[in-house]
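User: Let's play a game. I give you a shape written as tokens, and you guess the letters that built it. Ready? Here's round one.
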């Protein structure tokens, strides 16, 4: 379990507490619902991917500061959701909302249909299928399909709303990183 001054720790102490929260013993909730353990690990790994892979790559490509703020905020929030999940409070809808907000901001700041953000819709759909059931699952799936369709239409009708890439290399780097990160996310959920 995390120690009380977790937010003020730095260095190896924080790493050990996050490591214990991520890989520590299963709670009663996680024994009864294996998806809760997957959720906890997914939160921490998504936060790590955002903060330690996506942000450095986007800094290297020199993308929009809005995307960086969104990725950092979402990454920190993912660690917060993981910490809450380690304490038995699983917030699957909050995770989905963060992903949706990140995808929508990323769409306009990272090339729209020309960028890699579209890859993350597939990860979101798999997340919905794993963590939701019944009418809620179909509602969220319909909302994500409608969101993707709306983003494509806005991109078509108003291409000036989308920040493009400065050169073809930046686009290839964005597509490559998006493909790798979304593949890792999908593998973590399915595997």
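Assistant: Ready! My guess for every position:
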């Amino acid at each position: 379990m995390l120690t009380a001054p977790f937010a003020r720790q730095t260095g190896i102490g924080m790493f050990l507490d996050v490591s214990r929260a991520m890989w520590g013993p299963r709670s009663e909730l996680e024994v009864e619902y294996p998806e809760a353990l997957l959720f906890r690990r997914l939160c921490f790994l998504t936060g790590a991917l955002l903060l330690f892979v996506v942000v450095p790559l986007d800094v290297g490509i020199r993308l929009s500061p809005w995307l960086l703020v969104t990725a950092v905020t979402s990454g920190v929030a993912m660690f917060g959701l993981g910490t809450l999940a380690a304490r038995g409070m699983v917030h699957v809808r909050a995770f989905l909302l963060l992903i949706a907000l990140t995808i929508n901001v990323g769409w306009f700041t990272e090339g729209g249909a020309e960028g890699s953000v579209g890859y993350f819709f597939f990860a979101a759909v798999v997340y919905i299928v794993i963590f939701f059931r019944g009418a809620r699952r179909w509602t969220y799936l319909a909302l994500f399909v409608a969101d993707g369709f709306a983003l494509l239409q806005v991109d078509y009708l108003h291409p000036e709303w989308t920040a493009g890439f400065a050169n073809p290399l930046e686009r290839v780097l964005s597509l490559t990183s998006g493909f790798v990160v979304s593949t890792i996310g999908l593998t973590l959920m399915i595997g």
